[in-house]
Amino acid sequence: MSCRGLLVATALAASLLAGCAVPGAVSSSAPAAAVLTPAKAEDAVRVRAQQRWDWLVTGKYEDAYGYTTPAFRGLNTAQSYRSRFGTGASWMGARVQSVECTTPERCTVQVAVDTRVVARGFREPITTSVVETWLLEEGQWWYHQTP
């Protein structure tokens, strides 16, 4: 492998590992925004968006809360975040369908969410599409949650 190929592989691995950081933790070694190309940004957002939904589906709301922007977490506690989710339905699964980064600091994510509705007349799970906004702040991608 050439030196350039090794450098590219190392940079990609570093950006993917940054997406696997502990929820809510900010790493000072996170890659700078200027280093991320659109394809790399979309890959990083795809991984983090899927991780967040995996936490939501398994009911680990505090872990999902760790993926919200630092500003949101500054205004809302993990408990208040948890209280935003009701009991009229339960998520059965979620899959990131697409990621489009419209600017170097903003991506739109489309997620297919399988939901079991707890109400008369709903026997089979339904699949809905959720559109999310992810923002690059402090070298990391965060889910933009309306305060």
Short description:
This protein is of the alpha+beta class.
Topology (elements, then pairings):
Layout: H1 3-19, H2 38-57, H3 61-65, H4 70-75, H5 78-82, E1 89-103, E2 106-117, E3 126-137, E4 140-143
Question: How would you characterize the overall build of this protein?
Answer:
The radius of gyration is 17 Å and the shape is globular. It has a four-stranded antiparallel sheet with strand order 1-2-3-4, with helices on one face. It is of the alpha+beta class. It has helices spanning 3-19, 38-57, 61-65, 70-75, 78-82, and strands at residues 89-103, 106-117, 126-137, 140-143. The longest helix is centred in the N-terminal third of the chain and has 20 residues, at 38-57. It is built from five helices and four strands; from the N terminus they run H-H-H-H-H-E-E-E-E.
Descriptive key words:
single chain, alpha+beta, 147 residues, 5 helices, 4 strands, globular
**Proportion in β-strands:** 25-35%
- Per DSSP, the total helix count is 5
Characterize the main sheet. 4 strands, antiparallel
Order of helices and strands: HHHHHEEEE
**Overall 3D form:** globular
Provide the gyration radius in Å: 17 Å
Give, in spatial order, the strands making up the sheet with the most strands.
1-2-3-4
Sheet/helix structural class = alpha+beta
Helix content: 25-40%
Mean pLDDT: 80
Could you tell me the number of beta strands? 4
Report the uncertain regions: 1-35
Report how far apart the termini are. 48 Å
